[in-house]
Amino acid sequence: MEFQSILFADTGQEPDKAEPAFFQDLKLDYILNIIKHFVEGYGIHQYYYTLPLTEGLIKYRQQVFKDLSDKGMRQVVQKFCFQMRKSRSSYRYSLQCEEIMQAAAYHLEAALLYWEALEVFQKELSLYSPVSCGINSLKEYLAGYIAGCKEKHFDKALQRANGFFSQMHFRLSVGKNCITVEEEGETDNYLLELSELLQVNPEETEITLSGIFPNALELSYLEASLVQMLKRNNPEVFDVLQDFYKLFPDFYSKQLLRFEEEVQFYISFLEFRERTERYGYHLEIPDISSGNEFFGTGVYDIALVWKNADRDYKVVPNNFQWGSKPSFFVVTGPNQGGKTTFARSMGQAVYFSIMGMPANAETLTVPFFKGISTHFEAEEKIQSNSGKLKEEINRLIPMMKNKNNHQFVILNELFTTATTNDALIMGRKVMQYFLGRKCYGIYVTHIQELAEEEEQIISLVAQVGDGVDRKRTYRMVHMKAQGYGYPEQLLEQFQLSYKDIIRRLSC
To answer: How many Cβ atoms from other residues are within 10 Å of residue 29's Cβ?
Structure first.
C-alpha cells in the first residue's frame, strides 16, 4: 500500500470540522480538552471528531497504536516532528521577509533542518520492526522519497549553497570609540552611522548595545549594512543562495507534512493513556467482532476519573454482555445510583473502540458501529416558547431521521415531563424504531415497565447495599426491575427529611 495518511490510510476520508452531537453528552469535549495539552502546537480536534467509515480503517489504526505504544519508536516520531516544527518555523520566516537575501537565508535554513530530519528519521526508524501497515508503508515511502530527492540533486544543491554560505566569516568588534566589521582584511567603520540607532555616546567608557536586532523578520541598520558589504565582497555566495531558493521553492513532502499533523492523534492519546494508567485505570485495545458479539469487563467513566484525579475517590467499573442480536439495556434503579454514569462510560467505550483507540475497559469486544446517537436529559430553556417535552422531541427528530443502521444509541431519562403512561408508550416506540435499524442501545429510565424483558430488551438494575443506609454500589446487575427509588437516604444526606424541614421552619 502506498503511504498516504497515517490516520485515514488510502480511504480518501477527510476530517470533519464540526463537533459531533454526542460529544457533550458523553463528556468527550472535556476529555479532548485534556488530551490536546499533550501535543501543544497542533490542532487535533478535527481528528477526534471524525469516525472511521470502514472496519478496516479501525484495525489499521489499532495496529499503529500498538507500534507507537513502544516508547522508543514514539520518541523517534516525536523527535522528527520537533525537527519539522523548527524547519517550518524558518520556512514561514522566509515567506514573511521583505529583504530577498534574508528570505533566501531562512529558506536555506529550513531546507537544512528538513533534510537533517529526514535522514535521521529514516536511520532511527530502520532500527524498529513495526507490525502496522501504516508505519511500514511510511518507512517505504520515506526511503523512496529520500532517493527521489537525491535523483533531483536536492541534497547536492543544499550542500553547495550551505558550503558557500558557511565560507563567509566576519568579525564584529565593539570598542570604546568605534564599531567595526572586519571581513577578508577589509575594515569598515560604522560608528557614525550607528550612533543614532544605538543611542550611545562614543566618548563614554562603556557602550551598551540595544535595539541592534529588533526581531527575526526586520533587519536592523547594522544587519542591512552587513548584508550589503558581504554581497559586495562575496557575490557568488549570494548567487548560489538565490539559485537554491529558485530551484527548490517548496521542498516539503505533502505526505510527510500530513503525517506530522496526523500522528499527533496517536501521540496525544498514548500520553493521555499513560497518565490515566498512573491513576490506576487501564485502557486496552478492543476486539472488533465480525458478528454481533458485544461484551466487556471493567468499563468505567474516564471523564469521572479525571475530574476526581486529585481526590481519594474510586470510580466503580462495570461488566456487561449483550445478546446475540441488536437489543437495548433498560437501566432502572435508585436516583444517583450510577445509571447515567454507566451509560456514559459505555458511550465512551464504544466511541474509543470505533475510533481505533484503546478503550476505557479491562477487556472489550464490540461490533462495528457506524455511528453514535445520544439523548441526555437537558434543562428546559427559559427563553423557549415550548415545554421540555417538545424540546426533547425536537432533539429526537434528527436522531430518528438519520437513516444509518448499526448505530449505538443512548437515551437518558427521556420523556420525564410526560405522564407515566405516555412516557411508557413513547419510550417503547422509540426503542422499537432503533431496534428496527439494527441498533444496540441503552435506555436509562425511572419507568420500570419499560424494563419488562423480551427478546430484545434486557433489564439492568443499579444496585444498593444491604445495610440500613442502603448505600449506592454503582454496580449494574442483570435482573428484573425493582421499582425502588430509595429516596430516604438522599433526603437524609441533604437534610430534606420531614424532621429537618420542620426543624428549620421552627427556627
So the answer is: 15
